[in-house]
C-alpha cells in the first residue's frame, strides 16, 4: 500500500490548487485566519451579489460602492464570528449587506431631515408643502413601526421583495431558502401588516 506523500503546500493556500472551487464557508474559515488569498476569492465571488443587493436599496451608485466596501471590511474583521450551523455563508454575508444598506439609508435620511430643518429656518414654504412633508414623515414612521411587529425572517423577506424590488425567486436565492418558504414568510408578514393597519384582505 502506498504511503501518502507529505504536501509542501501551505494548508491555507491549498484551495488555489483544487479542481473544484472552495465553498464560501471554507473561504470564511481561511479568512478568519488572516488568509488574504481567500478574502480575494470570496470578494470576486460575492461582490457582484452584494453590490446588486445594496444598489437596489441605496440606489445611489457611489454610496452603494462605499457600503459594499464596508461590508467586505466587516467580513475581513469578523469572519471568525460566522457560524455555519446557523445558516449559509451567503445568507450571513447578504444579511450583513442588507443591514449596512439600511443603516446607510437611515443615515442619509437623518442628514436630509437636518438639512430640511435648517432650510425651514431660512425659508417659509407654503402651508401645503409643510403639510405634505409632515404627512410623509408620519407615514414613514407608521410603516417603520409596523415592520417592527414582524419576525426577523418575515421582515427580511418583505424588505427584499417590496422595498428591494426582488422577485420571489431572487429572494429565495439571496436567502438560500426554497421559494415556497419565501412565499409563506411574505404571506404571513403581509397578513400581520394588514391587521396592523386595519386593512381587510
Explain the overall architecture.
The chain has 201 residues and is mainly α. The chain contains eight helices and no strands. It has helices spanning 24-32, 36-58, 61-78, 89-122, 127-147, 152-163, 168-175, 179-197. The longest helix has 34 residues, at 89-122. The protein is globular. Residues 1-14 and 123-128 have low confidence and may be disordered.
Descriptors for this entry?
mainly alpha; 201 residues; single chain
Brief sketch in words of this structure:
The protein has helices at residues 24-32, 36-58, 61-78, 89-122, 127-147, 152-163, 168-175, 179-197.
Query: How large is the share of residues in beta strands?
Result: under 5%
For the report, how would you describe the main beta sheet?
none
CA(first)-CA(last) distance: 71 Å
Number of helices: 8
Q: What's the shape? A: globular
Order of helices and strands: HHHHHHHH
| Count of distinct strands | 0
Rounded to the nearest angstrom, the radius of gyration is 22 Å
Q: Indicate the low-confidence ranges by residue numbers.
A: 1-14, 123-128
Mean pLDDT: 76
What is the topological layout?
Layout: H1 24-32, H2 36-58, H3 61-78, H4 89-122, H5 127-147, H6 152-163, H7 168-175, H8 179-197
Helix pairs in contact: 1-2, 2-3, 2-4, 3-4, 6-8, 7-8
Amino acid at each position: 500500500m502506498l504511503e501518502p506523500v507529505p504536501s509542501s503546500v501551505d494548508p491555507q493556500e491549498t484551495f488555489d490548487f483544487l479542481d473544484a472551487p472552495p465553498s464560501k464557508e471554507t473561504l470564511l474559515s481561511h479568512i478568519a485566519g488572516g488568509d488574504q488569498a481567500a478574502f480575494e476569492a470570496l470578494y470576486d465571488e460575492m461582490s457582484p451579489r452584494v453590490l446588486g443587493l445594496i444598489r437596489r436599496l441605496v440606489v445611489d451608485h457611489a454610496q452603494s460602492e462605499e457600503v459594499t466596501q464596508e461590508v467586505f471590511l466587516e467580513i475581513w474583521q469578523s469572519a471568525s464570528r460566522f457560524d455555519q450551523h446557523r445558516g449559509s455563508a451567503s445568507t450571513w454575508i447578504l444579511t450583513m449587506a442588507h443591514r449596512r444598506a439600511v443603516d446607510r439609508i437611515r443615515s442619509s435620511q437623518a442628514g436630509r431631515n437636518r438639512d430640511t430643518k435648517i432650510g425651514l429656518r431660512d425659508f417659509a414654504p407654503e402651508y401645503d408643502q409643510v403639510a405634505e412633508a409632515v404627512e410623509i414623515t408620519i407615514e414613514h414612521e407608521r410603516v417603520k413601526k409596523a415592520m417592527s411587529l414582524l419576525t426577523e425572517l418575515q421582515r427580511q423577506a418583505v424588505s427584499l421583495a417590496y422595498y428591494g424590488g426582488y422577485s420571489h425567486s431572487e429572494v429565495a436565492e439571496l436567502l438560500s431558502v426554497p421559494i415556497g418558504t419565501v412565499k409563506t414568510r411574505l404571506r404571513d408578514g403581509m397578513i400581520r401588516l394588514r391587521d396592523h393597519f386595519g386593512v381587510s384582505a
